[in-house]
Amino acid sequence: MAVIKGPFLVFTLATAFAGFIGCAVSYDRPLARKDISMPQPKELSPTSPQQVHISAVGPDRMRISWITESSAPAIVEYGTSPVAYSESATGSTSSYDYLVYKSGEIHDVVIGPLNPNTVYYYRLSSDSTREFSLKTPPADFPIKFAVVGDLGQTGWTNTTLAHIGQSNYDMLLLPGDLSYADFLQPLWDSFGRLVEPLASQRPWMVTQGNHEVEKIPIVHSTPFTAYNARWHMPFEESGSNSNLYYSFDVSGVHVIMLGSYTDFDPDSDQFKWLQADLRKIYRRKTPWIVAIIHAPWYNSNSAHQGEPESDLMKESMEGLLYKAGVDIVFAGHVHAYERFTRVYNGKADDCGPVHITIGDGGNREGLASEYMDPMPEISMFREASFGHGQLEVLNATHAVWKWHRNDDDVSVVADTFWFRSLSSDPACKV
Known about the structure:
Elements: E1 3-4, H1 7-17, E2 50-56, E3 62-68, E4 75-79, E5 87-90, E6 92-94, E7 97-98, E8 101-102, E9 105-111, E10 119-124, E11 132-135, E12 143-147, H2 155-165, E13 171-175, H3 186-199, E14 204-207, H4 225-230, E15 246-250, E16 253-257, H5 269-279, E17 288-292, H6 308-324, E18 328-331, E19 337-344, E20 347-348, E21 354-358, E22 379-383, E23 387-393, E24 398-407, E25 410-420
Parallel strand pairs: 12-13, 13-14, 16-17, 17-18, 18-21
Antiparallel strand pairs: 1-8, 2-3, 3-9, 4-5, 4-10, 6-9, 7-8, 10-11, 12-23, 15-16, 19-20, 19-21, 19-22, 23-24, 24-25
Helix pairs in contact: 5-6
């Protein structure tokens, strides 16, 4: 897939600088399942598309991204019948260098306009040997989100992905820490191949975590190189100047993806963008608001306490989300599951968002199993298990959340919670 020389050099640098992005932690974790690696299938040619994933761009368009080993056209042919492609679109091609690694050709094409809730068949780079299909989200309620953080590439990741694939979801939300490449760039390629069966069929909307930073002082000073090159999200359409934070509307839900590892203080571009984005929300069109961060603002686990990405970001932005009537805030980072009551400024508040930590996708570092005792009154449910969540927004007023534990490789619903939208609650002025 890519040129890589001196892997020992890369590993040594990665180990030396892991502490700069918070990979080194001070608490003990149980071991996760073994790492897995997805090599390039031997039957693929240098111009065959691989690592295919899609993301939503506005209400009726999709971005399709893929990688080829050598040069190939950035073209997508698509239609509503297999092999019969009535439409085509062209896009751009790029690549990136990271130390001694050079990526393959990264292709990025936006297709549309597309009909809602419709299956489209497509092929990439004029390669007739691989046909893919995708389903667009519905135009209105109901809509089902799969939510999973800190995925990684382990046996637990495989189990989580299998359970998500059985859920008939419309869109996946991922609050950071995707591949756990941690400087070893071929692991980004392995991750792309691992998630392709799901990510090529439904839009995956992601934000960054600490494992995406991949900044090494002096030798590679630019952060998020691989993440920004491989996972282009629709930040331009939301008025953002950074791929690290953006928003979009889907089926009556306004989703805000925030960046825990870029500036967030009141003088920052992200803070000013968030202010402007919240002012533009029209609750009759999008009665639900969901926000995604990586480092949780509320956390009763012993892991990741006192980090500025949590505490200072909460101090800067919690008031903005509260005043706007954000319904739910999803986070990752802590490798466990926890759901809080509606909360604001550290106290239960019926007009505050529900905070949910869902950093349990299957990472290689294991689970964060030590919780504070006693359990805080604002914490409703917590458990150190791998799993994923499903948020089904049924209509403008009600939604149901279910957390699925990976219990002996069987998807078990361990926590269920019914929401009423804050926009429908007369006691909350939104």
